[in-house]
């Protein structure tokens, strides 16, 4: 039984940050019921790992009967999460005020890019826009070149999903003492601003230039914290910041201690020249040869693996960090709990696979369910796929 066993989470179908939050809740044992729009086939849906562990109910929330069924679900839930623009849920009549009228203890998690208010609140946007506005995108990349897009990890999932999950869990804890729910306004732009705390701290101490790329300790300027091409055209990641770790790396790599030493690490004027020498050094061996020499040590060296290679790495394999689900490998649940471990209870279920069971669990009779289906308010599917 997972740490969130006994909690019911209602997730409004969407993309990206909100579905990942639902996946994490499901991995941790919550009953997550996803409200889908239809049972029509979707090529992306067939490989959407964020649907693992969730139930699927198809309801037409634009209909009065669909909203009525949704509100009955809300009355039985602990959490609702949704990722629509501000005002969309209110326009449907199922916003936080309406939901908390039927369930005062409900935690209502809202996931947007810009937040529920502010000049940009009603604008469209994506990960790249949110990280652009917070200084994060500006800080990533090589000097004199354009900023590098770090996939959609920083805004969508770092600044979005993780802050939504944290906020919902904190609100659930608070409700234990107050007996009241609340709205969690999660904005990716806020989350990313918080992720930048270390850069701002270093800058305030005079140790980081926020106006420049590749000019600071952790942005690729330092020769001891960067990636290097190897003999076979692959790459090695070096992160030996601490002098004693770098000393171990330098010794094993056969570097000249009169050139590569603690004084050189502290002297930024030497960084470019030493980086060039280190780049030539790394070209003398293949990635895997460097891994054999350095990886299993405190030298802070790792091979740069592709996502296809990652599951086969001995450390990831040894921790069972990837699991076969729905016919392909997926990251195992994280974090790990000692007493109430997380688990993937089942793989993706077909849209509408749980409509009948969930609605009948709310008290709908067979005849009422048949009527909802005939009206197109609720759709069901008998294909409940699981692995």
What does this structure look like?
With 387 residues, the chain is of the alpha/beta class. The chain folds into 2 domains: 8-194 and 325-379, 3-Layer(aba) Sandwich (Rossmann fold); 225-318, formyl-coa transferase, domain 3 (2-Layer Sandwich). Helices cover 37% and strands 14% of the residues. The chain contains 16 helices and 12 strands. It has helices at residues 17-27, 64-75, 88-92, 96-102, 127-132, 136-139, 153-178, 188-195, 197-204, 243-253, 262-266, 271-282, 287-294, 314-318, 355-361, 366-375; strands spanning 8-12, 31-36, 54-59, 79-82, 107-112, 182-187, 225-229, 235-239, 301-303, 322-325, 328-331, 378-379. Helix 1 packs across helix 7 (153-178). The radius of gyration is 25 Å and the shape is elongated.
The share of residues in helices is 25-40%
Beta strands, count: 12
CATH H-level homologous superfamily name of the largest domain: Crotonobetainyl-coa:carnitine coa-transferase, domain 1
Which residues form runs of ≥5 with pLDDT under 50?
Answer: none
- Give the overall shape: elongated
Supply the helix-strand structural class.
alpha/beta
Specify the biggest β-sheet.
7 strands, mixed
Average the pLDDT over all residues and give the rounded result. Answer: 95
CATH class of the largest domain: Alpha Beta
Task: Provide the domain count.
Answer: 2
Main β-sheet, spatial strand arrangement: 6-5-4-1-2-3-12
Instruction: Write the H/E string, N to C.
Output: EHEEHEHHEHHHEHHEEHHHHEHEEHHE
Number of helices: 16
CATH topology term of the largest domain: Rossmann fold
């Amino acid at each position: 039984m997972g740490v969130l066993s006994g909690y019911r989470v209602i997730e409004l179908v969407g993309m990206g940050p909100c579905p990942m939050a639902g996946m994490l809740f499901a991995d941790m044992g919550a009953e997550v019921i996803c409200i889908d729009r239809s049972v029509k086939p979707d090529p992306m849906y067939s490989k959407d790992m964020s649907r693992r562990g969730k139930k699927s109910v198809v309801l037409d929330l634009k209909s009065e009967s669909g909203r009525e069924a949704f509100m009955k679900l809300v009355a039985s839930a602990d959490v609702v999460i949704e990722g629509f623009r501000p005002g969309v849920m209110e326009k449907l009549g199922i916003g936080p005020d309406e939901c908390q009228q039927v369930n005062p203890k409900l935690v209502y998690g809202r996931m947007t890019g810009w937040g529920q208010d502010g000049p940009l609140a009603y604008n469209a946007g994506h990960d790249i826009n949110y990280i652009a506005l917070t200084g994060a995108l500006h800080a990533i990349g090589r000097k004199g070149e354009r900023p590098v897009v770090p996939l959609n990890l920083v805004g969508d999932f770092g600044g979005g999903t993780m802050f939504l999950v944290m906020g919902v869990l904190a609100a659930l804890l608070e409700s234990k003492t107050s007996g009241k729910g609340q709205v969690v306004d999660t904005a990716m732009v806020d989350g990313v601003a918080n992720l930048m705390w270390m850069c701002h701290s270093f800058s305030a101490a005079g140790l980081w230039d926020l106006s420049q790329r590749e000019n600071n300790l952790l942005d690729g300027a330092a020769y001891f914290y960067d990636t290097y091409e190897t003999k076979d055209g692959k790459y090695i990641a070096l992160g030996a910041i601490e002098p004693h770790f770098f000393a171990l790396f330098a010794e094993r790599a056969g570097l000249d201690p009169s050139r590569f030493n603690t004084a050189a690490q502290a002297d930024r004027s030497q960084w470019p020249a030493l980086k060039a020498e280190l780049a030539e050094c790394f070209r003398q061996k293949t990635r895997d040869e460097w891994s054999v020499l350095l990886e299993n040590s405190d030298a802070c060296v790792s091979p740069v693996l592709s996502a296809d290679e990652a599951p086969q790495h001995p450390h990831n394999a040894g921790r069972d960090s990837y699991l076969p689900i729905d016919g392909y490998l997926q990251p195992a649940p994280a974090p790990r709990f000692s007493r109430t471990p997380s688990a993937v209870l089942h793989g993706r279920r077909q849209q509408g696979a749980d409509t009948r069971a969930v609605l009948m669990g709310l008290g709908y009779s067979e005849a009422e369910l048949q009527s909802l289906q005939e009206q197109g308010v609720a759709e069901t599917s008998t294909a409940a796929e699981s692995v």
